[in-house]
Backbone:
């Protein structure tokens, strides 16, 4: 098993190096770049607008780039003609000279891009700001826009610095929170949410319990943890109020003191889900702070 895993990761490294070599050998910028996931959509749109002053080299982004609740670039992609999805043909028909994929893409799409020897970059790390920085630099290098890549990183770092400086916690004792989900699937350690909670001055009780990624928890676990706050993901005041009502009706959550006392926190869904340089939003403490 260990040998198989080692071969797998070595293969990924070799494949990534080969793709970089293919592009570097030509000495030419890729002119038909296809982005197949929202994180790379957001990076490439802002990267190329700064580097090229246009999006001519980006004929396609993922369907999520237009998502009203998730995308940070929805108003920027109107001039991009094509959208790609899980079907490989949506990518192949565009005859790209670079495809930026992620581990979220379908295995069939990733496989056919590889077997057709299409230069590509596979992004797999989405657990920390370090991963975001590495992803930006990898993309920027391949599209020959490294200075612009550093600008995006600086923008994110500036946002994070402001977040730290405006930390709402005056006391050394930080408040605990948990992310709400109707399915009781919460966000734990080694997720961007966990880092965001820390930057905002909170302790994620799921991470504190040494649970990683996105575990499904029991009502008993929630009661034992007894977080001071429950974080709701919503995109308008109306949605936030609806989410509060869901919590109050959920058997696993409604008896928590945080639910009874309306100790809720709020975060826009695109801020919660982003895996790009848009990371670093403040967690809102009052529904009246929420902009529709």
Residues:
């Amino acid at each position: 098993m260990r040998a198989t895993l080692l071969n797998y990761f070595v293969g990924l490294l070799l494949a990534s190096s080969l793709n970089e070599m293919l592009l570097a050998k030509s000495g030419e910028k890729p002119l038909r770049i296809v982005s197949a996931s929202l994180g790379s959509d957001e990076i490439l749109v802002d990267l190329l607008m700064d580097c090229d002053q246009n999006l001519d080299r980006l004929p396609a982004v993922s369907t999520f780039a237009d998502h009203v609740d998730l995308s940070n670039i929805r108003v920027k992609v109107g001039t991009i003609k094509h959208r790609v999805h899980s079907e490989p043909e949506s990518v192949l028909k565009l005859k790209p000279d670079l495809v930026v994929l992620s581990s979220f893409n379908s295995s069939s799409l990733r496989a056919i891009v590889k077997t057709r020897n299409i230069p590509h970059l596979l992004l797999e790390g989405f657990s920390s700001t370090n991963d975001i920085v590495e992803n930006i630099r990898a993309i920027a290098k391949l599209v020959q826009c490294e200075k612009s890549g550093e600008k995006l990183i600086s923008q994110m770092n500036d946002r994070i610095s402001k977040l730290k400086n405006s930390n709402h916690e005056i006391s050394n004792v930080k408040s605990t929170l948990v992310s709400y989900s109707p399915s009781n699937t919460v966000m734990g350690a080694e997720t961007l949410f966990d880092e965001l909670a820390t930057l905002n001055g909170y302790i994620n009780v799921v991470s504190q319990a040494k649970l990683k990624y996105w575990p499904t928890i029991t009502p008993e676990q929630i009661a034992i943890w007894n977080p001071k706050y429950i974080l709701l993901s919503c995109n308008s005041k109306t949605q936030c109020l609806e989410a509060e009502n869901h919590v109050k009706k959920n058997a696993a959550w409604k008896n928590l003191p945080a639910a009874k006392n309306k100790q809720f926190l709020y975060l826009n869904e695109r801020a919660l889900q982003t895996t790009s340089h848009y990371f670093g939003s403040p967690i809102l403490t009052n529904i009246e702070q929420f902009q529709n």
